[in-house]
């Protein structure tokens, strides 16, 4: 499971720079298996809404509070705390359907249009925005560039009651079209019932950005009553929900607690995966390998199983075994950027001339498919440095610091890259864009 990220890049073209309290800021959990599993749950709802599942992605924020939100038309963010709170896939799909409705109904597009006076980062071609919902008052740190931080955050994420009602209605329709019972929407709303009577400091962020009313609950009950269930023999929602939630919990919660929750006679896919993660974190390498190898024997064509096997080997300092496992994962899913990033990291760990050359090639492929991975960018910078390309090493380091919100550090490395790279080259122009983004952030403070 990848580390935490403070700033997330999205393809919109405006520059929002977050002003965060570092001690409270939470970040993205980048894990290929979890993201894939959540995407499987969102896919039928996105199709029902007429949106492309290849464009709208679901990401997890490492935050124990309960929230989900969208900040543009291509990304849905959900807190890890909300995933672990919900007990069945239909409830999480109700959350997704509601957020998808905000996108489909144009609520976010209007907000971005209203923020059009923000500075651009044209060369980056992306929006520097805070996909972080853990500032002091529980508001997400998005839209800071549109005004003062507190006001902008509240205005950008706080939906009106009419928008919430509209999203509920559309979300229920998307659920019904996808064969998901809209009654799950009621169960989600009941979790937040009574939140508005609490002091703001005690409310979950979801209650602050998604105002709840008796009318919303009444309408949700009406949507559920009108739904006609239908059989769907290919419905794998329970499996993907258990897989995403199970792995997330195994990595976040105490490993001993994870093991206690698994029945000793349970040898299902999910149980084997959870045991492997828990034993790995203890650490108990032999037990971790026993479980993940058993799962790999059962699911030999599952790239995410081989990825986890590679992670266990790599973090146990067995680089050669890690390379073999990641190589198999990439063979099974050759275009997945997170798998490519892991493979490149394992190749670097070999610390050989051949491994370094291969790592650079693989990490460049990962970057081309998903540049929003600070850990990958760190590895890519190392690979460039080992190849003698110090200009690209400095540029990649500057990009990583920009992603992390450390724009003063990004400026230092972008300045170095500017001096080392050929004037007018793609890398030189990108260094200029990082410098402009850093300067814009300084001017707004």
From TrEMBL:
Q: What is its EC number?
A: 3.4.24.-
Q: Which InterPro entries match?
A: Mito/Outer_Membr_Metalloprot (IPR051156), Peptidase_M48 (IPR001915), TPR-like_helical_dom_sf (IPR011990), TPR_rpt (IPR019734)
Which Pfam families does UniProt cross-reference here?
Peptidase_M48
Sorted alphabetically, the keyword list is: Hydrolase, Metal-binding, Metalloprotease, Protease, TPR repeat, Zinc
Q: Does the keyword Protease apply?
A: yes
Q: Where is the Peptidase M48 domain?
A: 37-222
Q: Name what cofactor the protein needs.
A: Zn(2+)
Kind of enzyme, top EC level?
A: hydrolase
The segments carrying the TPR repeats are 303-336
**Organism placement in taxonomy:** Bacteria, Pseudomonadati, Pseudomonadota, Alphaproteobacteria, Rhodobacterales
Gene Ontology MF annotations: metallopeptidase activity
The name on file for this protein is M48 family metalloprotease
Q: Show the CDD domains listed in the entry.
A: M48C_Oma1-like
Q: Which domain of life is it from?
A: Bacteria
């Amino acid at each position: 499971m990848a580390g935490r990220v403070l700033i997330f890049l999205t393809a919109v073209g405006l520059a929002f720079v977050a002003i965060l309290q570092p001690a409270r800021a939470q970040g993205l959990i980048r894990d290929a298996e979890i993201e894939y599993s959540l995407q499987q749950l969102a896919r039928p709802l996105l199709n029902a809404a007429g949106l492309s599942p290849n464009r709208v992605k679901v990401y997890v924020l490492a935050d124990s509070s309960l929230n989900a939100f969208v900040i543009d038309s291509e990304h849905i963010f959900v807190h890890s705390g909300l995933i672990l709170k919900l007990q069945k896939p239909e409830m999480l799909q109700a959350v997704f359907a509601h957020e998808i409705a905000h996108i489909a109904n144009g609520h976010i597009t209007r907000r971005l249009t209203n923020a059009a006076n923000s500075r651009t980062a044209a060369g980056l071609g992306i929006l520097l925005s805070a996909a972080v919902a853990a500032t002091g008052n529980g508001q997400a740190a998005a839209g800071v560039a549109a005004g003062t931080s507190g006001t902008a955050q509240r205005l950008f994420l706080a939906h009106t009651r009419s928008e919430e009602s509209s999203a509920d209605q559309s979300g229920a329709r998307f659920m019904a079209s996808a064969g998901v019972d809209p009654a799950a929407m009621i169960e989600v709303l009941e979790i937040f019932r009574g939140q508005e009577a609490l002091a703001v400091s005690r409310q979950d962020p979801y209650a602050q950005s998604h105002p709840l009313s008796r009318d919303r609950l009444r309408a949700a009950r009406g949507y559920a009553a009108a739904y006609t269930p239908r059989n769907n023999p290919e419905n794998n929602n329970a499996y993907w929900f258990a897989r995403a939630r199970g792995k997330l919990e195994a990595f976040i919660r105490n490993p001993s607690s994870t093991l206690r929750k698994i029945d000793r006679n349970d040898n299902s896919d999910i149980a084997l995966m959870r045991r492997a993660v828990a034993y790995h974190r203890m650490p108990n390498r032999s037990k971790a390998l026993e479980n993940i190898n058993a799962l790999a024997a059962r699911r030999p064509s599952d790239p995410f199983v081989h990825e986890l096997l590679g992670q266990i080997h790599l973090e146990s300092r067995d680089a050669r075994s890690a390379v073999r496992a990641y190589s198999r994962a990439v063979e099974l899913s050759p275009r997945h950027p997170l798998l490519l990033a892991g493979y490149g990291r394992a190749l670097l760990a070999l610390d050989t001339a051949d491994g370094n050359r291969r790592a650079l090639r693989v990490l460049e492929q990962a970057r081309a498919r998903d540049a929003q991975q600070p850990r990958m960018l760190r590895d890519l910078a190392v690979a460039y440095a080992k190849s003698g390309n110090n200009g690209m090493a400095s540029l990649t380091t500057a990009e990583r610091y920009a992603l992390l919100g450390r724009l003063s550090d990004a400026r230092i490395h972008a300045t170095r890259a500017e001096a080392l790279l050929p004037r007018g080259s793609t890398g030189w122009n990108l260094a200029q864009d990082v410098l402009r983004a850093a300067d814009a952030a300084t001017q707004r403070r």
